[in-house]
Amino acid sequence: MPLKPPFARLPAFDPESGDLNVIVDTPKGSRNKFEFDEERGLFKLGGVLPAGAVFPYDFGFVPATLGGDGDPIDVLILMDEPAFVGCLVESRLIGVIEAEQTEEGDTVRNDRLIAVSTRSRNHKDIREVAQFNQNLLAEIQHFFVSYNDSKGKRFEPLGLYGAERAGQLVEEGGARYRASRG
Question: For this UniProt entry, which segments traverse the membrane (predicted)?
């Protein structure tokens, strides 16, 4: 009998604070990409980035959501220091990179939310993606393009949008998740 993952009971938004719940699967600075194996109830190594490439910030997912690719919605979390695999980080949405990802001829939506840890000191004043350094945003988009390219996938950013649109995508992902569970 498979273990029931603890993340299945965790809502996308904390009901008391309204913060976005994000589970880190890959810490900032890591070449290793980890992923949650729902059947086994643990994290496993999903791949390794090429030498010289690392995740620019902590990367994770929003529990109780499903993105266009059938996986939980992805989130890049701005924090002062890297967290660890499996860490719950309460976050504030600031925006989203809407994108399509193509693999073996199949194209799906695979957006990347951008959030700030509510405990961050360095990023505490950022409320919208427009406040973020535009050059760094371009570098983050380039990271996702090259990361997917190294895996034989094509990642095409469609646009950069603010916190309101990011919140809508989380709500839609939550509805897809609930519908998939019956």
Answer: none
Answer yes or no: are the C-beta atoms of 94 and 162 closer than 8 Å: yes
Tokens (6 digits) for 58: 């902590």
Residue 52 domain boundaries: 17-176
Domain contains 87: yes
Per-residue pLDDT reduced to its tens digit, 169-181: 999 999 999 998 8
Q: What is the CATH number of the domain that holds 71?
A: 3.90.80.10
**Looking at the 3D structure of the chain, how many domains does it have?**
1
- What stretches of the chain show up as alpha helix (H) in DSSP? 134-150, 163-180
Query: Of 8-12, 21-25, 27-31, which gets the smallest average pLDDT?
Result: 8-12
Q: What is the pLDDT of residue 3?
A: 38
Q: Which amino acid, residue 110?
A: N
Q: What is the SS3 assignment for 112?
A: strand
Q: What separation in angstroms does the CA of 27 have from each of 14, 86, 128?
A: 22, 10, 23
pLDDT band at 5 (very low <50, low <70, confident <90, very high): low
| Residue 106 bridge partners (DSSP) | 103
Which tens digits make up the pLDDT trace of 25-37? 999 999 999 999 8
The pLDDT value recorded for residue 38 is 83
Residue 93 C-alpha from the chain's centroid: 11
Task: Report the chain's terminal Cα–Cα distance, integer Å.
Answer: 20
Q: Is 58 exposed, middle or buried (0-12, 13-18, 19+ CB in 10 A)?
A: buried
